[in-house]
Automatic annotation (TrEMBL):
Lineage: Eukaryota, Metazoa, Chordata, Craniata, Vertebrata
Organism whose genome encodes this protein: Oryzias javanicus (Javanese ricefish)
Full protein name: Protein ABHD18
Pfam families linked to this entry: ABHD18
InterPro entries, per the entry: AB_hydrolase_fold, ABHD18
Residues in the signal sequence: none
């Protein structure tokens, strides 16, 4: 989808240029802001960009934000546990940008506890930080840990349980027999699945993996201070990825900003175009 969006945006911008439209700029709200940012990374000329209510990566949106509640984590955990070979193949393709996403996970949790949004099982302790293995070794170690747990008859799950006590588990689990529920309900597996999801999402969507726009001084980012849909904690900021860009913060959350603060978005668009016209008057 990102590749198609970049191609379509480039084609539209070139058509508008040929038709004599000037100046040109890109903007969008929420996912539209992220898409506008993607489009500008591939444009070979200075262009105003105003992404509103979007940030540097989609990983936090689906692992710690409000939308993480809509993810079918139990199904993803089952797929992650069963397809260990597939997981190891994918992990070799991941190139992490900036701060390591797997290291950032437990650090973010210590500071703000935002991983609670994805309903971590009761009885889960910080010992499970061992599931966050940095860099490329994560996939291999994660699969190895899963095999070890299976060889031990899932005693860890029998002791802790998906709900925090051994009494919640079937008697067959306590006798060392591996059941469907014990195979997929280990707290460590839940955290590994979140970590793997974050790594894949960062690989596919992180702005640091794309080219820096030609002139970052023409970028004005508008963000909501209390945005629970697009968490900014624990990920690289757009100022770090695009040095020279401006970030404007408004009071409110994702929905309230969209409904009641569109005048702020318009002001940012006016300012970005004014900067462009002052800086590049000859590009007509």
């Amino acid at each position: 989808m990102g590749g198609a969006l970049i191609l379509e945006s480039t084609a539209l911008l070139r058509w508008l240029e040929r038709e004599g439209y000037w100046p040109l700029g890109m903007t969008g709200i929420s996912m539209g802001g992220y898409m506008a940012s993607l489009a500008v990374t591939n444009w070979p000329k200075p262009i105003p960009l105003v992404p509103c209510l979007s940030w540097s990566t989609a990983s936090s949106v689906f692992t710690t934000g409000v939308l993480s509640k809509a993810v079918n984590w139990s199904q993803l955990e089952k797929q992650y546990a069963v397809n260990s070979v597939y997981e190891k193949e994918i992990i070799q393709l991941l190139e992490y940008c900036g701060a390591d996403s797997f290291k950032m996970g437990p650090e973010l949790w210590r500071r703000s506890g935002t991983l609670d949004l994805v309903n971590l099982p009761k009885g889960f302790s910080m010992m499970s930080d061992q599931s966050f293995i940095a860099g490329r070794t994560f996939g291999v170690n994660g699969a190895h840990n899963r095999r070890q747990a299976a060889d031990r008859g899932d005693h860890i799950v029998s002791a802790v349980g998906c709900r925090g006590t051994s009494s919640d588990l079937p008697s067959s689990s306590l006798n060392g027999e591996k059941t469907e529920s014990t195979r997929f309900c280990r707290p460590s597996l839940h955290v590994e699945s979140i970590s793997f999801m974050k790594g894949v999402m960062d690989e596919c969507t992180h702005m640091a993996n794309f080219s820096v726009p030609v002139d970052t001084s023409l970028i004005i980012v508008v963000q909501a201070k209390e945005d629970a849909y697009v968490p900014r904690a624990g990920v690289l900021s757009l100022q770090e990825i695009w040095p020279g860009c401006e970030v404007r913060y408004l009071s409110g959350g994702h929905i309230s900003a969209y409904l009641f603060k569109q005048n702020v978005f318009r002001r940012a668009i006016y300012d970005a175009f004014d900067r462009f016209c002052l800086k590049y008057p000859s590009l007509q």
